[in-house]
């Protein structure tokens, strides 16, 4: 089943976001309380440092004589001597850091029941806002004194101690920093320390609600975003599939300059190169197949040639050997018999000689070793001259010759090759003429070609044999062919010669015989 990359990517991103959310909740539960406590301590220590520095500067003013006593720090007479800047510093610190500030002096101790309680004189308090009522200030001090013995110590320093104190009067936890400043005056800082557990739960619920909303919205956003990424990949996958099916027409048309764009350009380049290489490979394959076919054909021709030559030469060689042995053994003493034996040997040797000559001519034609000498000549003269030389053969067979032609018909061809073609046609007609013993030779101009036809009366060629009569050593009637000494090579020479000349040739059965024809170029004649 096909799995969508888009859905996979969306799922992975959703799992990743969900993991972040769960990680955030887990971190909230484990570390937020400690961080909250650390932050509160840091605030108290920073406040202590800043107040101590500012108060030390005020102490220097006293030493310089600006005021000689700060035992009545809360009174109006003393307040007038305090720098307004110092009050603003303390007030801003208390407000910005949500810290209650109490500066005091120990002025003695009183016995309250069974407890000894220290008495203090407030020097400055951010709680009373400058009023003369120190009730709340004393409450801040009393709350710490009453609960500090059982309070948890968070941090201890040479000048101060930080404790987590539960104030029963207020029903809440506070962090107290209690200590002394550089000049020996006391300092007490208090910061609210609400339970962090409720805050963590509230924070976790808020994160879950927001995360759920964002997750739902994020799914649609992710689907849209991943579609923008996966669409080009899908197109590239389709193009690759088309390339696998050897279809190189589809191209990537993206315009992006990122990695996907580079991949698309690379696939286009690969497609073009594959198409080009495949074309070259097909051409090379066709050429190789043709060469293999040609080699196979040549091998078959060689085997057939050797077989046919062996067959054709076997009979005359056997006859020559037999009659020669007869002469050697003086089988017949009379002169007439010896002469007959010699005539047979000479006749068979001539047949072998003619066969070898024809095979050499055919080999030269088939393998392109024959140089064609094109000439413009009167083909009527060539045919008439050859018929005159063959007159004795025509009269020996009592053949009636009809030569039908115009006085002059000029053609472009190799004169020797044309004579050889006509010789094979006429020899074939003489060997097969029968019935009326008539041979008709026609030279007819047909537009840009001249057709030369040699017809003989006699038996027709079976239709199934007509395509094969041009093959080497093929004989329709082997017994009769042997009778007149035919080799089955003459028509193969005609075929090879006509293919070199690039003209048409053929044979057709007529009502009373067979007609062989060939055509020659007669342009501009």
How does the SSE layout of this entry go?
Elements: H1 5-63, H2 76-79, H3 84-96, E1 99-112, E2 115-125, H4 135-147, E3 152-156, E4 160-167, E5 172-180, E6 186-192, H5 196-244, H6 259-328, H7 335-366, E7 374-378, H8 379-389, H9 391-396, E8 400-404, E9 410-414, H10 415-432, E10 438-446, E11 449-457, H11 478-484, H12 490-501, E12 505-510, E13 513-521
Parallel strand pairs: 8-10
Antiparallel strand pairs: 1-2, 1-6, 3-4, 4-5, 5-6, 7-9, 10-11, 11-13, 12-13
Helix pairs in contact: 1-3, 1-5, 5-6, 6-7, 7-12, 8-10, 10-12
Q: Radius of gyration, rounded?
A: 64 Å
Distance between the termini: 77 Å
For the largest beta-sheet, the strand count, sense and barrel status come to: 6 strands, antiparallel
The low-confidence runs, each spanning 5 or more residues with pLDDT under 50, are: 65-82, 478-482
The dominant shape is: rod-shaped
Can you give the helix content as a percent range?
Answer: 55-70%
Strand order of the main beta sheet, please? 2-1-6-5-4-3
E-strand count? 13
Number of H- or I-type helical stretches: 12
Oligomer: single chain
Strand content: 15-25%
The overall pLDDT, averaged over residues, is 75
What structural category do the secondary elements indicate? Answer: alpha+beta
Q: Element order, helices and strands?
A: HHHEEHEEEEHHHEHHEEHEEHHEE
Q: Can you put this structure into words, describing what you see?
A:
The chain is an alpha+beta fold and 525 residues long. Helices cover 56% and strands 19% of the residues. The chain is built from twelve helices and 13 strands. The protein has helices spanning 5-63, 76-79, 84-96, 135-147, 196-244, 259-328, 335-366, 379-389, 391-396, 415-432, 478-484, 490-501, and strands at residues 99-112, 115-125, 152-156, 160-167, 172-180, 186-192, 374-378, 400-404, 410-414, 438-446, 449-457, 505-510, 513-521. The strands form three sheets. A six-stranded antiparallel beta sheet has the order 2-1-6-5-4-3. Strands 8-10-11-13-12 form a five-stranded mixed beta sheet. A two-stranded antiparallel sheet has the order 7-9. Mean pLDDT is 75; it is low at 65-82 and 478-482.
């Amino acid at each position: 089943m096909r799995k969508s990359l888009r859905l996979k990517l969306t799922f992975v991103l959703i799992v990743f976001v969900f993991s972040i959310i769960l990680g955030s909740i887990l971190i909230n539960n484990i570390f937020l309380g400690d961080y909250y406590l650390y932050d509160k301590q840091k605030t108290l220590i920073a406040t202590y440092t800043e107040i101590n520095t500012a108060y030390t500067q005020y102490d220097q003013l006293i030493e310089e004589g600006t005021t000689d006593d700060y035992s009545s720090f809360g009174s109006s007479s003393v307040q007038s001597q305090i720098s307004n800047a110092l009050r603003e510093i303390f007030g801003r610190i208390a407000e910005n850091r949500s810290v209650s500030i109490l500066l005091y002096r120990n002025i003695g101790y009183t016995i309250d029941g069974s407890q000894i309680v220290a008495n203090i004189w407030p020097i400055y308090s951010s709680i009373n806002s400058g009023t003369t009522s120190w009730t709340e200030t004393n409450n801040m001090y009393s709350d710490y004194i009453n609960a500090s013995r059982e309070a948890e110590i968070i941090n201890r320093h040479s000048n101060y101690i930080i404790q987590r104190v539960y104030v029963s009067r207020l029903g809440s936890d506070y962090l107290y920093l209690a200590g002394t400043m550089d000049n020996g005056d006391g300092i007490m800082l208090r910061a609210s320390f609400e339970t962090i557990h409720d805050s963590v739960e509230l924070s976790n619920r808020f994160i879950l609600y927001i995360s759920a909303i964002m997750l739902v919205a994020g799914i649609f956003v992710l689907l849209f975003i991943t579609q923008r990424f996966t669409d080009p990949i899908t197109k590239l996958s389709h193009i690759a599939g088309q390339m696998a099916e050897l279809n190189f027409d589809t191209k990537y048309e993206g315009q992006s300059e990122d990695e996907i764009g580079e991949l698309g350009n690379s696939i286009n380049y690969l497609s073009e190169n594959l198409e080009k290489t495949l074309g070259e490979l097909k051409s090379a394959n066709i050429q190789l197949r043709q060469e293999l076919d040609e080699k196979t054909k040549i091998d078959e021709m060689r085997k057939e040639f050797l077989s046919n030559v062996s067959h054709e030469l076997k009979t005359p060689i056997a006859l020559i050997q037999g009659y020669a042995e007869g002469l050697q053994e003086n089988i017949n003493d009379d002169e007439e018999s010896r002469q007959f034996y010699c005539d047979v040997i000479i006749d068979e040797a001539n047949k072998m000689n003619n066969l070898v000559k024809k095979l050499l001519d055919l080999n030269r034609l088939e393998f392109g070793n024959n140089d064609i000498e094109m000439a413009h000549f009167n083909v009527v003269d060539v045919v008439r001259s050859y018929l005159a030389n063959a007159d004795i053969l025509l009269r020996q067979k009592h053949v009636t010759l009809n030569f039908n032609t115009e006085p002059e018909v000029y053609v472009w061809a190799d004169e020797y090759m044309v004579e050889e073609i006509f010789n094979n046609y006429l020899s074939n007609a003489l060997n097969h003429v029968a019935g009326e013993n008539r041979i008709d030779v026609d030279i007819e101009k047909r537009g840009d070609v001249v057709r030369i036809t040699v017809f003989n009366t006699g038996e027709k060629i079976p239709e199934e044999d007509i395509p094969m009569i041009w093959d080497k050593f093929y004989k329709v009637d082997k017994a009769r062919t042997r009778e007149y000494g035919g080799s089955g090579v003459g028509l193969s020479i005609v075929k090879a010669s006509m293919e070199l000349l690039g003209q048409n040739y053929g044979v057709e059965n007529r009502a009373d015989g067979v007609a062989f024809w060939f055509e020659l170029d007669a342009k501009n004649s």
